[in-house]
Design brief:
- It is a single chain.
- The strands form 3 sheets. This protein has a 6-stranded mixed sheet with strand order 8-9-10-11-13-12, sandwiched between helices. Strands 2-3-4-1-5 form a 5-stranded parallel sheet.
- It has 16 helices and 13 strands.
- With 383 residues, it is an alpha/beta fold.
- The two termini are 35 Å apart.
- A hairpin with a 2-residue loop joins strand 12 and strand 13.
- It folds into 2 domains: 115 residues, P-loop containing nucleotide triphosphate hydrolases (Rossmann fold, 3-Layer(aba) Sandwich); 253 residues, no CATH class.
């Protein structure tokens, strides 16, 4: 088991939400860190049936003398439980961990989110730093960082099963769409937008669905924390920029498991977006775990000049370009140089497929593996 970077939720004895896609290790981490806690897993019919019929039954599951942690797994399955949790926090001073794979589903249900009595944290796939010696860049680009893939004898099959069972069943369980066939086809079509700006109309045509349905499906992916849409960085804008958001599935291995592949697909069409995805998921994890407070976006002009990731926050401004190539030329830093003209305080980086750090054009060029292993320092020293 990997030692996870997430520490802050347990530093104070205060109830908290822990959100993250299924399979990122929320329950495993909590059982390791809170072995004496009472666990109520709403994926188990034993708990789900009784509590969905009567949320007040939760009180009977907690012993009168219980003063430790109570963990409710996948709380979004019974949002009404939050009223009971709220009352137990107030009346008995109990502390809860409420895990879920759909933060916005709870918000959209209009349920009690404990009125600030519980903090919110996120769990991400295992990071390069958490893997230590086990981290292998080639394997990571191919298989991603879901914890189970490191222990499975056939990780590629595990990822296919993850997509088939979890993604589709989760959508059905949450009653988010009535046509699972349309949604399955949409998933595959959306995978061709990985790392690209979204053309919702084109995706809808390819998936043979209405544009409004495609937009709803993109929202569902975000609701279930399966995907993220990055906005364009437009603070004090000086040039004409694109307006469309950029799309990514949350894990490189999950992306590859969804993306159809055949003899007409080149390595660059798949490995390029997969490498970008890997970097993004690492950026998101380190930013959350270390509480750096960056907003992550991208920058692209109407003429096509693009910076893959822009991080803006109290610690500074960073611009990052991802290159698979093993050699870096002057032209590879052009987008970053253009960005720096508009935003002189920016620290600019290229993460590339080479083996040695290079410094050129006021840009720091780092091997991807090296950069991911020290991402905490890079983000922490942005100013």
């Amino acid at each position: 088991m990997f030692e996870r970077l997430i520490k802050k939720p347990l530093e104070s004895r205060k109830s908290f939400f822990l959100f993250g896609p299924r399979g990122t290790g929320k329950t495993t981490w909590l059982k390791h860190r809170l072995p004496e806690a009472l666990f109520v897993n709403l994926l188990q019919s034993e708990y789900y049936n009784r509590l969905s019929a009567n949320p007040g039954h939760l009180r009977q599951l907690i012993a009168p003398d219980h003063t430790g942690w109570t963990v409710i797994d996948e709380v979004q399955r019974i949002p009404a439980l939050l009223n009971e949790v709220h009352d137990l926090i107030e009346a008995r001073g109990l502390v809860f961990v409420l895990t879920g794979s759909s933060a916005r589903t709870l918000r959209r249900s209009g349920v009690n989110l404990l009125a600030g009595r519980a903090l919110t944290y996120r769990m991400h796939p295992v990071t390069a730093v958490e893997q230590r010696e086990a981290f292998n860049l080639r394997d990571s680009v191919q298989l991603g960082h879901l914890p189970a893939r490191f222990s499975e004898s056939d990780p590629a099959k595990y990822l296919k099963d993850y997509v088939q069972t979890y993604l589709r069943e989760e959508v059905m369980q949450e009653s988010l769409t009535r046509n699972i066939g349309h949604f399955s086809r949409f998933l595959e079509v959306a995978s061709f937008s990985q790392g690209a700006t979204i053309n919702t109309s084109a995706v809808a045509r390819e998936a043979h669905i209405e544009r409004s349905v495609a937009e709803n499906y993109f929202s569902i992916l975000e609701d279930l924390l399966i995907a993220v849409r990055l906005p364009v960085f437009s603070r004090k804008v000086k040039r004409k920029l694109v307006s469309q958001k950029k799309f990514y599935f949350f894990d490189a291995g999950v992306f590859r498991a969804i993306r159809p592949m055949g003899p007409l697909d080149s390595d660059a069409e798949i490995n390029g977006p997969a490498l970008e995805t890997l970097v993004l998921q690492e950026l998101r994890a380190v930013n959350d775990y270390r509480d750096y407070g960056y907003q992550i976006s991208f920058w692209r002009t109407r003429s096509g000049t693009e910076v893959d990731f822009v991080l803006y926050g109290p610690r500074g401004l960073l611009a990052i370009k991802i290159k698979r190539s093993t050699q870096i030329q002057h032209k590879d830093t052009r987008a970053l140089r253009e960005f720096k003209k508009d935003y002189p305080p920016a620290k600019c980086f290229v993460f590339y497929g080479g083996s040695s750090p290079v410094y050129m054009d006021d840009v720091t060029v780092l091997p991807v593996e090296h950069a991911l292993r020290r991402l905490g320092q890079i983000l922490g020293n942005a100013s």
